[in-house]
Amino acid sequence: MSAVHHRLSRPVYESLPWAYMGAGGLGLLTSYLETEASPALSLGLGLPGLCGVLAGGVILLRRRSYRRLRAQYGSPDGLDEAIGPSDARSSPPGSPR
Fold first, then answer.
1. Rounded to two decimals, what is the model's pTM?
2. How many CA atoms lie within 13 A of 40 on its CB side?
3. Considering the domain boundaries, does residue 95 fall inside one?
4. How many domains are there within the chain?
5. Is residue 97, in this structure, part of any structural domain at all?
6. How far is C-alpha 86 from the chain's CA centre?
7. Are the CB atoms for 72 and 81 separated by under 8 Å?
8. Cβ-based burial of 33 (10 A; exposed 0-12, middle 13-18, buried ≥19)
9. Is the separation of the CB atoms in 42 and 31 below 8 Å?
């Protein structure tokens, strides 16, 4: 049996965090507007909305961090910038540099 790998196209993949944040923001807005009508409905829309906004933001930040790190490792001088000066490894912990 061969494994089937499903992949998303790049535009869809890149737009997912924005979709999460948009849907979460819509949930939060609806939750705010429905507060007087039904507190349970407001909570039921607000919590997933908050989770959507947070998840989208975390995914965006993680992607940015991963891409910066990957770019540093792509260049030979990038490793020195990520680690710091070469004498940083030889100094004992807690000593001033």
1. 0.65
2. 0
3. no
4. 1
5. no
6. 31
7. yes
8. exposed
9. yes
